[in-house]
Amino acid sequence: MVLAFRACKEMALDYDEAKVDQAVLALLYLTLGEDGRAWKNFDWEAMNRLCEQGFIDNPRNKNKSVLLTEKGVAESERLFRKMFGR
To answer: What is the extent of the structural domain holding 63?
Structure first.
């Protein structure tokens, strides 16, 4: 199982990083608490890009959650409703 996982991670996959970032941001809304924090169990590179874009606070800390900025909360909700709403 570990070897299969490593093989998948090492394969060069062609994907749109911006779409991944939008999906991650939308899914952060799913675990968003009233304090503006959400669980950060997502790809580190995507989380770093969201930080660089001003949607979340620095994800590289010992906390299991990440703080969304006001901009991040608004965009996270918009994307969640767009991608997953009925």
So the answer is: 15-84
Does the CA dihedral 67-53-73-31 come out positive or negative?
negative
pLDDT digit string, tens, across residues 43-81: 788 889 999 999 999 888 888 888 999 999 999 889 888
Show the tokens assigned to 77: 């909700």
- Enter the pTM of the model: 0.64
Calpha distance 38→25 (Å, rounded): 10
Instruction: Provide the token pair at 47.
Output: 């989380």
Q: How many domains are contained in the chain? A: 1
Residue 7 in domain: no
In a domain? residue 23: yes
Q: Could you tell me which residues come within 8 angstroms of residue 73 by beta carbon, excluding any fewer than 6 positions away?
A: 29, 32, 36
Residue 1 resides in a domain: no
